[in-house]
Amino acid sequence: RTDNIRWKGDFRYRHEGINVEDEETRNRNRIRARYTLIADLPQNVEVGIGMATGGDDPVSTNQTLGNVGSTKDVHLNLAYFNWAAVENINVIGGKFKNIWVRPDNNELLWDSDYNPEGFAFIFDNGRFFVNGGLNWLESDSKTDNSRFAWGLQSGITGNFGDNTFKAGVAYFEIPVQGREVFFGDEDAFFGNSFTCVDPVNLLGCTYDHNFEDVELFAELRTSLGDMPLTLFADYAQNLDTNHFNTAWAAGARIGKASDSGTWQAAYRYQDIEADSLFGLTVGSDFAGGGTDSKGHIFSGSYAINKSWKLALTYFVTERNGDLGATEDYDRIMIDTKFKF
Questions:
Q1: Phi, psi at residue 146, to the nearest 5°?
Q2: Quick one: DSSP state of residue 321?
């Protein structure tokens, strides 16, 4: 680094096994590589440019290995400015890391790889926080399909004894009713309800509902003996429909894989009804991504040192299939991860 330029990155190798009911077990090997160059400019401005492996999927930067060692795609993953306008307030614009607080980093509403595009602000004085965002779903008005989503989130962080808690409320509005898909095939609605002009050939398909979600969340960081313990709960409801409109997650994590020789283990359960959340942005690993699913997540990791970790995650889930029947969807991920 120089006086005003720094960079950071990470690399992950993953072996993944997927077992879907009545289908052959799928195994694949995947990599993820990301790096970001950050410039610290005058007037308390930070500018970042980041690249990552993968295609144009908004919730994944994984790249599957194969094609006899072919070269792999790298795309623009971050391009933003972050202005520390006044004390405790930051203004952000471009394509940036997701600003929304996710208790214990759970992926109920937002996949961890999702980087929104538009503008945001963050206020955090160590006790109260307020986050706001105006994010483009499609910014080009040429096809009369320009849409933006917005959200507002606020909450409090506090301490009692050696314990730390965080709690908050949020509202997100994603206006997609009557809109065709943003990403994927013409019928790729990721679990959300849709209607087609030609239902036989799945042509002219559009979303049935907007997503006007109220979120409530809480996180407690405490200890069990000498081990750190984190508990969390996250709940959301879509006010635009009265049917299949709720989602929730809860879980616990013990330990912390940080320094050499440390470990952590976690359990989570979540239930996402079909029209509770915008399916495109929720966690893409849980039940294959999207909504209309529920199940368990077991995970653990071990730190070889501060830069190198081994991790295992096991999903035991079920989802509603294309014909409406419930099907089991299990996934195991074995990771080795490096940060630099």
A1: -65, 135
A2: -
304 contact partners, CB below 8 Å, separation of at least 6? 260, 310
Q: Is the pTM of this model over 0.85?
A: yes
| Measured distance CA(190)–CA(243) in Å, rounded | 17
d(CA 145, CA 60): 24
What distances in angstroms separate CA 170 from CA 100, 167, 234, one per listed residue? 9, 10, 11
Q: Which of 144, 136, 202 is nearest to 175 (CA)?
A: 136
**Is the separation of the CB atoms in 36 and 48 below 8 Å?**
yes
Q: Token pair of 171, please?
A: 């509202």
In angstroms, the Cα distances linking 239 to 114, 133, 182, 214, 265 are 23, 19, 22, 7, 35
Which position has the token pair 């004085």?
125
Contact 306, 259 (CB under 8 A): yes
- What ranges make up the beta strands (E) of 115-210? 117-124, 128-138, 147-160, 163-174, 194-198, 203-207
Closest-CA residue to 188 (of 207, 175, 212): 207
Alpha-carbon distance of 262 to 325, in angstroms, equals 43
Q: pLDDT at position 143, please? A: 64
- State the pLDDT at residue 185: 87
CA distance 266 to 256: 10
Question: Which regions of the chain are under pLDDT 70?
Answer: 1, 143-145, 322-324
pLDDT tens across 225-267, in order? 999 999 999 999 999 999 999 999 999 999 999 999 999 999 9
